[in-house]
């Protein structure tokens, strides 16, 4: 074997041998060559021009030129932390294994490692963390059965229920393609044209719309999944995280005050709490419904614009998550982390929710582009258990996913020469639901777009309703009249009082903004009279 090679013939990154003119501190380039001058490029005379063979300069600069990977198309701004999850092993008084055979829940001895990424949704990587925007709450469980990702938000419902609408929704919410400024008129144009979003808007513009930080925020899987037990029997399930630090939200005024001083407050808060040993914890709750369409309900249990009310579908505590370690490298761990709704383990399954299936395609598709074809080989995304596949090569393939004991010639299956084998399925009962029907493009039968929005309005306290009207009417004040009228109509359908108060709110807001505007014009005239010193 040659100098510095290991068994696969590749250089060993841990090889500590040094060149003659090198010490422990010596800067090298990526080829391991000691760098002799990191201050001056090579030039003809010390004023230049420079020459093209400046290898160290060209390598340094071309790597720098590629330091950024595409930002997530949504949820660009985030903060992450490591920790662990412990299952209580029970659902009410029953063993949890009656409902799921997933070891992350049935094994109460396990401390399953987790990585969590919290995020805001609409604006980019360095945008303020004080915006009225849902927050992402994505958890990767490195379980003994392989990885499970629970990709949720802080609010329990969503704007839309069909995945084909997601790109349009995000376009409307993101900055205008011409001005590059977010525009509430575009935002509400989409919302008014998508009545199913009335419920989500009712939460987003209420005091629940700006979480105070990531530690005191709830989380929810939003979409409906399934649990499968050892008999192959399934139930529908929804997941919710409750912070043991308590829940806290910001008023618009508080958010504005923080934003004027600091637009990293949530990232700082999480990082500092963990550094101080003040480890945040969340309890995981589930709601269960028998598998099926539930025609007796006035909504579809797969519709993610709907709550399953607690009084009818109780919340069961099933485990606890503790975050106790900050990332050592933000880029490697937080930026390159890749979560997806398809990442499930045995005992956890998809429901028929068409929105969930759309999401499941989108996550790994975007990650192959954003991070690269071999994103699952990165330590943050790889399971903390054995991986043995026949997938090979592609950009940035870092190693082969099979154990060294395996014959490296056989990267296919089946084979008579000794390939990897499928897992044993004897005595395994699979959940095999019967599905039949016409292939159609249609909306669901029980859209009930306004019922729960009205119920939420009525369940809010007085001050919550007041805050909602203030925020919503303020955001709608500059929108085209047709958008205002449609929003008033939808809120009236939810609850006549809701619509009436929104209509009054918009009128009052427009009147008071006009006064402020006139005052502002006068002030700016005064400023214009003072001479510009530059
Ligand atoms: C991130 C698509 C709905 C929660 C993302 C990303 C995409 C995406 C493409 C970027 C992923 C990456 O670059 O790694 C979609 C589509 C949806 C949808 C197509 C609807 C059809 C939802 C819903 C939730 C949600 C309903 C909440 C339950 C998240 C979270 C992230 C995310 C938390 C950030 C994950 C991270 O921290 O890396 N989504 N999404 N999304 N989405 Fe969705």
Automatic annotation (TrEMBL):
- Positions in coiled-coil regions: none
Which top EC class is given?
Answer: oxidoreductase
Q: Which cofactor does it need?
A: heme
Q: Which InterPro entries match?
A: Catalase, Catalase_AS, Catalase_clade1/3, Catalase_core, Catalase_haem_BS, Catalase_immune_responsive, Catalase_sf
The answer, when asked if Hydrolase is one of the entry's keywords, is no
Q: Locations of Basic and acidic residues compositional bias?
A: 502-526
One GO molecular function term?
A: catalase activity
For bias type Polar residues, the affected ranges are 26-49
Taxonomic superkingdom: Bacteria
Q: Which reaction does it catalyse?
A: 2 H2O2 = O2 + 2 H2O
Span of domain Catalase core: 28-421
Q: Which UniProt keywords apply?
A: Heme, Hydrogen peroxide, Iron, Metal-binding, Oxidoreductase, Peroxidase
Q: What is its EC number?
A: 1.11.1.6
The family database entries (Gene3D superfamilies) matched by this protein are listed as: Catalase core domain
Region (Disordered), start-end ranges: 1-49, 502-534
The record's section on PANTHER family has: CATALASE (PTHR11465), CATALASE-2 (PTHR11465:SF23)
By sequence similarity, the record places it as follows: Belongs to the catalase family.
The role this protein plays is:
Decomposes hydrogen peroxide into water and oxygen; serves to protect cells from the toxic effects of hydrogen peroxide.
Protein name per its UniProtKB record: Catalase
| Organism annotation | Geomicrobium sediminis
The beginning of the lineage is: Bacteria, Bacillati, Bacillota, Bacilli, Bacillales
